[in-house]
Amino acid sequence: MPISVTRAIAFASVAGAGVALAWKKPYADWQREEKAIRQDIREEQRKARISQSSSQQPRGLSRFIPPAVAAIDAAAPLTLMQSIGLDQWRGELCGQATGRVLEVCVGKGENFPHYDKASIEELVLTDVDGEVLQIARERSRQVLEGLRVETCQCDAAGMLPFPDDSFDCVVCAFGLCKAEDPIEAVREMARVVKSGGKLLLLEHGCGSSALINTWLSLSMKQRFRKDGCFYNRPVERIVQQSGVDILQLRRRHAQTQYMVVASKKEPGALEAQRARKELPRLARGG
Ligand SMILES: C[S@@+](CC[C@H](N)C(=O)[O-])C[C@H]1O[C@@H](n2cnc3c(N)ncnc32)[C@H](O)[C@@H]1O
């Protein structure tokens, strides 16, 4: 009898986990959720300033919440999982970069070993952090020896300091998660890429399973506080909403890692699309 109870519990757990994993839940209002987190953090900082000045320490159960959430985050197997096969994806993405290439949010040049130097005329590197950009510049001299490399410190979330249509490809790996307005950031990348050029994006974001998204949401605030990163954004929707054409979209690791190849819409494409949608209505009306 105890065995059958154990089996029943095991069966129920496996079935429950299966149902939870299969339960697809779209991430409803990510912008509202992020705004609430930013406000919460501002409020916490304000309270911390007051308690510091009156030398009060947090009391009660609330003092256990941040360490508990940090433990959840540290234990998150997704972080580990997302590093598996990452170099292969970097290679597949960056291998498509040709001509005059812009990399935004370059970091310390994690993508450099994955570029095909022979296909690139010039690489322009940007990051908001000057020190990081300096590291990237020095690393590029070793890893991309012989390639023309320029650097430009700028914020990918604002207006990029380049004219329209100035690059054949724009690469961004794990940068959209940091931009205050990721939709605007993709629009800017699309503005500076030439018609027929490519946006090459690698990103982490929400999965399609409610269970995984709930897990990610639990540590979202903690992660944002630590890294300034919203790692569970609905990347596909963000790219779609920025108005580019998605040429290729791949997802893996419980759908939480995204590789996107996109291009800017051709001039007049939107109008043509609208016209196509309106045609049946006009036909019915007529
Ligand atoms: C997670 S790292 C990604 C680094 C690298 N691209 C990679 O593939 O690993 C994010 C980088 O984006 C930069 N960053 C963050 N916010 C930014 C912004 N608003 N504009 C430009 N760069 C930003 C950070 O300084 C950091 O170097």
Automatic annotation (TrEMBL):
Ranges of residues in domain Methyltransferase type: 102-200
Family annotation (InterPro entries): Methyltransf_11, Methyltransf_Superfamily, SAM-dependent_MTases_sf
GO MF terms held by the record: S-adenosylmethionine-dependent methyltransferase activity
Pfam families per UniProt: Methyltransf_11 (PF08241)
Full protein name: Methyltransferase type 11 domain-containing protein
Lineage, opening ranks: Eukaryota, Sar, Alveolata, Colpodellida, Vitrellaceae
